Amino acid sequence: DTAWHNFDALNTPPTHPARLESDTMYVDYGNPDDELLLRTQTSTMQVRYMEQHEPPVYIVAPGRCYRTDTLDATHSPVFHQIEGLLIDRHVTMADLKSVLRLFASSFLGGDVHIRFRPSFFPFTEPSAEVDIACVMCGGKGCRICKKTGWLEILGSGMIDPEVFKSVDYDPAQFSGFAFGMVLERIAMLKYGVGDLRLFF
Fold first, then answer.
1. Which of 46, 77, 78, 90 is in the most buried spot, having the most CB atoms within 10 Å?
2. Residue 193 has pLDDT above 90, yes or no
3. Is the dihedral of CA 191, 193, 197, 200 positive or negative?
4. Is there a contact between 120 and 108 (Cβ–Cβ < 8 Å)?
């Protein structure tokens, strides 16, 4: 994908650490006008969809992503992500939380405990990471949850007005939310797989 779709349109400045070659796999690096890379997130689909469609927007976009992560029990340089995007009039953070709570209870079981932690992503404001109580140890602490009792399952937040401006949406008229989750991590939780490398 282009660096513009992967970073610039998503309000990620040239100085952001994610844009370094140590984090992103570039195919053609250097000239900002035509940098090509292996996409680091499915959020590029937000931009591509919004460029071609007027609001309201309701999409889910799965896809393969690439980062220069070291392969271990919970990370891989190649992984699959699913992106959710909802844009309409009067969308709030309460709508986002309701959707994510419904997903967690439907997919992982009605008794799953989740928490929202404030976070930062350049393309959402406010932003939150969503954790679930570790299903491997029941929240007691193990090597999978790094003894915290919690596992991060996704990043989310309200679309930053700068992202709307990059695709000519009026942030005074529309609001929305986005979330992204790694499918392998969700499968690990649902099926009790203790090591991501087993999928490969």
1. 46
2. no
3. negative
4. no
Side-chain half-sphere CA neighbours of 199 within 13 A: 22
Q: State how far the alpha carbon of 4 is from the alpha carbons of 9, 13, 21, 67, 163, in Å.
A: 6, 10, 16, 17, 12
Cα 149 from Cα 108, distance rounded (Å): 16
pTM of the model: 0.90
Bridge partner list, 148: none
Q: What are phi and psi of 191, to 5 degrees?
A: -105, 5
143-164 in b/e burial notation, b at 16+ Cβ within 10 A? ebbeeebbbbbbbbbbbbbebb
